Prior knowledge:
- With 538 residues, this protein is α/β, with parallel strands linked by helices.
- It folds into 4 domains: 4-73, 3-Layer(aba) Sandwich (His-Me finger endonuclease fold); 104-246, Conserved hypothetical protein from pyrococcus furiosus pfu- 392566-001, ParB domain (Alpha-Beta Complex), CATH 3.90.1530; 255-312; 318-531, no CATH class.
- Helix content is 41%, strand content 12%.
- The protein contains 18 helices and 13 strands.
- The strands form 4 sheets. A 6-stranded mixed beta sheet has the order 6-7-11-9-10-8.
- Strand 4 and strand 5 (136-143) form a beta hairpin.
- Helix 6 (179-187) crosses helix 7.
- The protein is flat, with a radius of gyration of 28 Å.
- It starts with a helix and ends in a 27-residue tail after the last helix.
- Mean pLDDT is 89; it is low at 250-254.
Amino acid sequence: MASKYLSALSKNEYSSLSDKLWNIQNKQCFICEEEIDLDLNTTNIDHIIPLANKGKDAEENFALTHESCNKSKQDANLKIAKVLQKLNKIQKVSLAETSKAASLKDVLNLYNGSKFEFIYKIEGEVLSYSFSNNSDNNVYSVAIFTDNLSGEQSCFIEVPIEYLFHDEIINPRGINNSIGKLIKEFDKKNPQLHLSLARIDDGKLKIFDGQHKAVAQILLGTRKFVVRIFLNPNIDRLTETNTNAGSTLRQIAFDKSIMRQLNNTLYSERVKKYQIAHNFKEDDFSFSEQQLINFFKGDGANVKKYIIDSIKHSITNAKENKLKDYIDFEGKAKELPISYSAFDKTILSSFVSSKLVLNSPIDSKSDEGLNPRELEISQIVKILSILAENIYINKFSPEVGTSRIEKKIIDKKDTEITDVHLIAYRVSKEEILFNWLQYLKKVITTYFSNTGKIFAEETIFQTPFDEQLWINIENFVVNLSHLPLWKDRSMASTVFSGKKNYDYWKEIFATGKSIDGAVVLAKPLNFIEMIISTEKNV
Length: 538
């Protein structure tokens, strides 16, 4: 909505208002908080609270911004845009330093939180505490409630952020894109209906649930808020409850990658319990996965799942895994080519056996660099990096993303879509990815057969690959990416229109034709031919 106030200003009056706002804002852009050089930077004056939201068309509701910040702002409300820009900076720093999304921990650190231990005492059904390290010497007391079903004890207290920490054991989640909605909701003065949950661990109050709500409040300037504190809780129970809330109960849409990390934690806890029960030292892993499962009678199925999920988590989050930069772990964004769901259903399901449990010691052959699980993880990670190097890196552009790619081609609005971007996008579609991975697996198993090696398919990644096999794998990937159909834009309205099922692409790769008889490939895929030379298009 246009400003009548600004429209009525002369050029000199507009310039004078810019100078005034510039000084009020300490010469910084209202949104990005970076310096504005009035001689070199183009600027805008905009309403802090939009007129559409009943903001005043008056000087008190104006702010000065870089023109580029104003045009690319993430919200019409400059206050929200400023908050989201600050969060964006936090995210960029975290991704650059750790390759992971920022979490509550990063926000607390930036806002001077997570400084002090929680000093308290319990007498009967009362918890007494003080925040004296934060210059508040008052002694507060609250009632302790005992849950009638679980027996867990908890209380409700208002806590300054200086005393709050992120629980990275129970809830390792990073901040996802939904945080913007929470920030807007709280900015409307709508209350938080579900409190953040925390536990006392090693003298610290650690939030393990409701971190997004905590982050939203902190970013909006809140320095303390009410938290439900669990006292001496059963950690396994809290972890399982938090996991079930996002899976079995679907209270929160946990993505599978986070559940895998939680299960990874539970696996580690089972290992520790086994060591304690057998008087093993912390570095003694001379027992097998099967022995671990047998020990936890009645819970063996879960322990087995924890083991497999731990392998998948280690592969996915390995520092050397270059493909993870192209996996959408949230499942909502449209900037990255592979959803975590597709990654799980295709790559992880194809390469990691969900049934395999080892009878050899967990630390078997580690000193020789031949530990079966370590080999399995490192070799799968190497394959993922080969995929990244030859299909995605410097080829797929997150700025172009995946949204309506085929529709843009059909509408002749595809000038920004390069051939290499289109190739990366198309080979990443779940039903396509699954099918060509079966040929890649054949490249591996056939090499073992041809070299006279006895192998079981479920353990093939636990045997060291020869250098020639790595050459074959890379040749296959390169030749796959060179297939003409991936950059054939005439197929946007036919072969690549909409989501097809797995059998549709199985037929194309096996015969060269779609199920309705349309010619898609010059000839069926032949994985033997595709490993011969990276120079020849198949």
